[in-house]
Write the structure tokens for this entry.
Amino acid sequence: MIESPTKDLSIVVPLLNEEESIPELCGWIEKVVIPLEYDYEVLMIDDGSTDSSWEQIVQLSKSNPAIKGIRFNRNYGKSAALDIGFRNSHGRVVITMDADLQDSPDEIPALYDMIVKEGYDLVSGWKQKRHDPLSKTIPSKFFNFITSWFSGIKLHDFNCGLKSYNYKVVKSIEVYGEMHRYIPFIAKGQGFGKITEKVVEHRARKYGVTKFGWERFVNGFLDLLSISFVSKFRKRPMHFFGSLGTLSFFAGSAITIWLVAEKVYRLSQNLPVRDVVDQPLFFIALVAVLVGVQLFLGGFLAEMMVRQRSRENDYLVAEDINLNA
């Protein structure tokens, strides 16, 4: 059961070596949020920084108790930082943003209202006008196109760090690996279908250097395939493995039957005959049969494991009435 939120707003900020921007970001957030009289918290997640980022967070938390910090003992990646931030958030609305000042805290009120007043589950920022080099923007456009096509979610910028969530979303999903790029896809797979986007300001980087790397596109594509598979077949693996196994088994069996029937026909007609085992096609058919059996058994075992875990909390309750009365 998802616990009820105790605050209006949680702002989760994953960061890595952003010592120059942290004080300015926290001051900017205070300037925006305090006049709105939100009961809020700022969760600064230090993902193994090697500069003085953590010291900055400690000092800021002394002057403002709403600023909280979590520090990893090493760099685990943005997904891990977001995941622990989600698990420790207490707000009715959870907003994520990067710490490099390229995301504007001025967007917070509108993102908050889109969750609370308009009833969206997730609002993703869209940096329509970007201040990044072409080496980053062109691959990003291709990545977003592929992700939108795979997921069926019409967003222009899946990887934008500025997003807002209904608290039920962040308490219902698990983010790991490089999965932070696909949080809308993960949320949709958990039944949160009210997803939209909002054009947000993208500011030029003021401090530090980009953490962008080309390897993220390779890892990202593999993660996309993983999410696609898990979202469709997590609860019914037999539908995937069993279908492929059955298809492979019957294809191999059909080829074998055809080879045997051809030999019988040729013998009956006194035509030249090759032994079935002398034909390469027979061995292809044999491999297809064996692979089909293995896939089917793999699907069966996976199905048994899913049934074994079926009583665990792997489902979501949308609401209840008088459950604790």
Summary: The chain has ten helices and seven strands. The CA atoms of residues 153 and 185 lie 7 Å apart. The two ends are 15 Å apart (CA to CA).
